[in-house]
Description:
Blueprint: E1 2-9, E2 14-21, H1 31-44, E3 55-59, H2 62-65, E4 78-82, H3 90-106, E5 109-113, E6 130-134, H4 140-153, E7 157-161, H5 166-174, E8 179-180, E9 189-191, H6 200-211, H7 216-224, H8 227-237, H9 251-270, H10 282-301, H11 304-316, H12 319-323, H13 327-332, H14 338-346, H15 349-363, H16 366-374, H17 380-400
Parallel strand pairs: 2-3, 3-4, 4-5, 5-6, 6-7, 7-8
Antiparallel strand pairs: 1-2, 1-8, 1-9
Helix pairs in contact: 6-7, 6-9, 7-9, 8-9, 10-11, 10-15, 10-17, 11-14, 14-15, 15-16
Amino acid sequence: MIARQAIVNGQQSVVGYELFNRSRTHAEHTAASDVLLVFTALSHAGTEELIGKTLLFVNCTHESLSGGHLELVNPDKVVLEIPPLGHAAMEEVQARLPILAALRERGFRLAFNHQVLQSTYAPWLPLADYIKLDVNVITPEHLAVLVKYANRHSQAQLIAEKIETAQQYEMTAALGIGLFQGYWFARPTVVQAKLLSPAQASVVQLMNLLRSQAKTEAIEEVLKKDAGLAFNLMRLINSASLGLPREITSIRQAVLMLGLKKLFRWAALLLTAARNGGPPPTVGQTAVVRGRLMELLAREIMAPDEADQAFVIGIFSMLDQMLGMPLDAAVGLLQLPEHLSAALLRHDNIFGQLLTLVEACESGDDQGFDQAAQSLPLSSQQINWAHLQALAWADEITQAG
């Protein structure tokens, strides 16, 4: 569960949202939970239910800042909130400087609290894009001094946070602070972020293949055999957080576009959310069979890249059951091209006809099977053989698990 709280400007227009991991208490806030929060958020970036097109302010630990997960993130819309070091010595502040400078050079914006204005943190101050001033811990007199100092010695935008009354807002605005956050404007709201947990064994297998720089075909095979892996990869690759110029419509495209290094980072992140052992759930296995059957049938009548898209439609046709939400909402999470969405939601076009046929194969509906088969240039022998192959392919997963 992720909570978000708006950060607004003087016209009370939202410029960004700070995210909080509400699945953990403050005491459980760790580098690992930072990583999972960022991963979940970037998979949802660009979707209206989380941050829309605004900035994303993410709390970080210093341990997580040096992690490779940030290589997955398009920095254009991410602000990293950097915590102070407690009773830090100048040497420790200086030691952390290269990491912070490298993140900013990559395009991330950095936010600090008012402690960055202390002399100890002088090396960090030029890196500050935002400085947050907590009106609950800073007196009005001291706040005025800090605002003047920040304006004189940095280029940072100032954010007055914990604003709970009109008087606090008017006082901070009068000092020249331009951004605001607090209950006076908006309380944090909880957003249910939808991710599927893949099998732990599948993630480990994927990481091993990536580490050994295996062929694309072998990597694609592992991704296809776990519905959780396939969903999360397609969700990530088509999110606004990666800033790709076009929509990705197949697992193979996603592998080639992301590259082995980023895929490995992604798999390492996903391992934190993986199921512990056991075979894939029944729904997930059924989805895998559907995907494989769609792919095999499509190969008989379509080009290879279209057969790859058929796999995606088959495996995602059960997203409503896997995510516990209506299918149209689940499909909306993936931001698929219209022709793939139309096949999933309305069984339109040839992909939709294939999906109807595959569903009839599952249900044993002879009349529905005959009608669907007649609409496609496929023989009963081709369909039955493909179904047996798909079932055998999916059985390998259970045996491997």
